[in-house]
Amino acid sequence: MSLKTYTFVLHGLRTHLNTLLALFASCVLLCGFSASAAETALADTPQVFRQYKDAVVQIRIMDKRSNNRTALGTGFAVDDAGHVISNFHVISEVVWHPESFRAEAVRANGSVVPLAISGFDVVHDLSLLKLATPLGTHLTLDAGPLDKGTTLYSFGIPLDLDFTIVRGLYNGLLPKSLREQIHFTGAINPGMSGGPTMTEAGRVIGINVATSGNDVGFLVPARYAVALLQQRANAPINSAAQMLKLMDTQLVAEQNALATRLLAAPLTTDTLDHYRTPRDWSDFFRCWSNEEHGEEKRYTSLTMVCGSQSNIFLTEDYETGTVHYSRSYVQGKGLSDLQFAHLYGSQLGVGPRVPDATREDVGNFACNTSFVRQPDGLPLKYIFCLRAHRKLPGLFDAVIMSATLDQTQSGLINRLVLGGVSYDNAVRLGRKFLGAVTWSNH
Amino acid sequence: MVEPLILEILDRHGRVAQRQKFTRFPVHVGRDYSNDLIVDDEAVSARHLTIEPGPEGGWVVEDLSSENGSYSGLRQRFTLKQIHNDDRVRIGRTQLQFRGVQSAIAPTVLQDGLLWRVSQLLGNVWIMLALLALNVGLLTWGSNTQVFTQIKPSDTAVTAGTLLLGTLLWASIWALLARLLNHRAVLFEYISLGSLLALASLLLQAFEIRLGYLAHDSAPALIVSSLVWLAVMAIMAYLHLKLATALSRRKLYTLIGTGLVVMCGFLLLSSYRDEHTFSRDLPFNNDLQLLPLSVLKVQPAGTFFDDLSDVRDSALQKGKDPD
């Protein structure tokens, strides 16, 4: 049985230099299994369950050769033509390998209906599927505003147990997030991915997508599902080539929007001894600092890591859409100049965490380095590395770094990591980011 | 006129231990003091054999009923045997080499040859000591620069001691080989050579770093320093083998050439493997030794981003389908 525990990009509360992904709330996408908490049904809940359960289906991804299931999730009907909304990550196997996998829906009464893919929104983790025979009932998507504290009901099949209803509360859109999500206070669990979360009146305001445990759940706002339904293709998408083309188009547009946003946003700096260095860029970055002392305190390393805390799921071990930047200010105390040079070089060599991907997804990195001087005269080493996404033309993962070279007992390293950007955007963002490293007294 | 006989007593390594010329025959050979050639070997009889001039040149050897016998070749025991120039006879544990005045000798070694001069230089005790001190000192200091904690005298002593013992062990092994194969005493030469080898590796490392700095890229620096490294290896291998063995120059060239070809093949194979192995590593030169920047090419920061299309093209090349 497929266990899809998947950590979202909510990076370390206590950050570590080479493992950005550390201890911060790790979210679990909901189509695997983990411990669940039983929810006591309240008086009005049986009525909601009875009324809407028939519009909800379990989605099973089947391996064509063994005819066995490989992933489970939830979906719900949104019209009488048989269209079903679920998550992209529930059906991602079918998208990448339509020759090996197929999707099917299991109704509350146990009957099985084949599913075809009509479209998806990979950026917001949504998919639009079509049932071979409509369910005869459907739910209504509602993008309208709600008050914080409104009672919501979430549907799904957690842990492959049974059709389940979960009562919880609406807690608004996540502030300071790169990609919009609703904060739902309720126990959504693996297997409920793609299920609807609705008001008592049956109006779906979000689609279950992730949890970080302890009743902290996340929903995709319904307006993205509305948009996906409106933009759907007439014919189902069958071939891997069509799927990849659609995915590439969406990801290219997304990184263009992100780059535009970052290029327009002011990059503030702060002072570290005699350097000015990037600090805040956009409100969706969260930053953590840490100070490491070397053995016998012969050096200190002051680090700061800022992450966008949002990835785009492509497969279980392939992510994109990541942006994070970090800095390390290394100071030697009583080391010889050569000892410091070795230390500083080894700190630079550690490199930042790069987005998850396998050999099938991306090529190896290629780099260029140069010694440069900022307009104010600060000498630096610049490093620019790219790797290409094999199946998504025009997209690269970029690592852009600098190290100051004017001191013999201290140095400042800055790093910017961009997952899935175009070459032009990598260059533009790199120029802006590294341009902010200067001397403080100029 | 009877041809004079030169008898050589060889030691266990085949080296001449004693050499004597005879013009009067018969020549008596044995352990007691009445013999013409007294052999100091417990396995030789008191009166072991006599040598007479042969009727058609050469000599005739007669065994005098010795306890352990006389042998020609490996195991051929004889009582009477015709012996020619450059033949050997074994009695007990002793080899007797028969030489006439016409026996060939090796050509004179020219004292102004390169190898001779290098050998003289490396064998000089002061030069040997200087190189050994330089080797131990520099390598100990070099390893200290890669430690970021307080360096204790005991750590330095351990590093220096290891280097010293290592160099001496290396030299001893080669010197022993040279002694066995070439009958030469060249321990000092090998201590010098071993020190040079260690120093060369240190210098090459520094050379590679400097080159990487100048080229802004580790790849060309790696290629150039690999070539230099191979050349140094070839020279070192030549000197080591030439001192230790009696191989002809031609054989040495063939041997070293083969070794280099094998090494190059290995380097090519491993670079091919690296190119086709998936890695998340960033292949850049992270060395930050703070050289004076004036010796390096420094460009304005703004222009760095003007054209990075070579990185893009290289990334695209590496991103082509793995199969």
What does it look like?
The complex is a heterodimer of chains A (442) and B (323). With 442 residues, chain A is of the alpha+beta class. Chain A has two domains: 53-238, Thrombin, subunit H (Beta Barrel), CATH 2.40.10.120; 252-439, no CATH class. Helices cover 18% and strands 38% of the residues of chain A. Chain A contains six helices and 26 strands. Chain A has helices at residues 45-52, 88-96, 222-230, 240-264, 337-350, 423-435, and strands spanning 28-29, 56-63, 68-77, 83-86, 101-106, 112-121, 126-131, 140-141, 151-156, 164-173, 182-185, 196-198, 203-211, 216-221, 269-272, 275-278, 286-293, 299-307, 312-315, 318-320, 323-332, 366-373, 379-388, 396-404, 410-421, 438-439. A seven-stranded antiparallel sheet of chain A has the order 17-18-21-25-24-23-22, with helices on both faces. In chain A, strands 9-10-11-14-13-12 form a six-stranded antiparallel barrel. The longest helix of chain A is centred in the middle third of the chain and has 25 residues, at 240-264. The radius of gyration of chain A is 24 Å and the shape is elongated. Chain A starts with 27 loop residues before the first strand and ends with a strand. In chain A, 52% of the residues are buried. Chain B is α+β, with helices and mostly antiparallel strands. Helix content of chain B is 49%, strand content 16%. Chain B contains eight helices and twelve strands. Chain B has helices at residues 114-123, 125-144, 153-182, 187-215, 218-244, 249-275, 301-304, 309-318; strands at residues 5-10, 16-22, 27-30, 37-38, 49-53, 59-63, 70-72, 76-78, 80-83, 88-91, 94-99, 299-300. In chain B, the strands form two sheets. In chain B, strands 2-1-11-10-7-8 form a six-stranded antiparallel sheet, with no helix packed on it. The relative contact order of chain B is 0.07. The mean pLDDT of chain B is 86. At the A-B interface, helix 5, strand 22, strand 23, strand 24 and helix 6 of A face strand 12, helix 7 and helix 8 of B. Strand 22 of chain A pairs parallel with strand 12 (299-300) of chain B, so a sheet runs across the interface. Chain B: Keywords: Membrane, Transmembrane, Transmembrane helix. Chain B: Residues 27-71 form the FHA domain. Chain B: InterPro entries: FHA_dom, SMAD_FHA_dom_sf. Chain B: This is FHA domain-containing protein. Chain B: Pfam families: FHA. Chain A: InterPro entries: Peptidase_S1_PA (IPR009003), Peptidase_S1C (IPR001940).
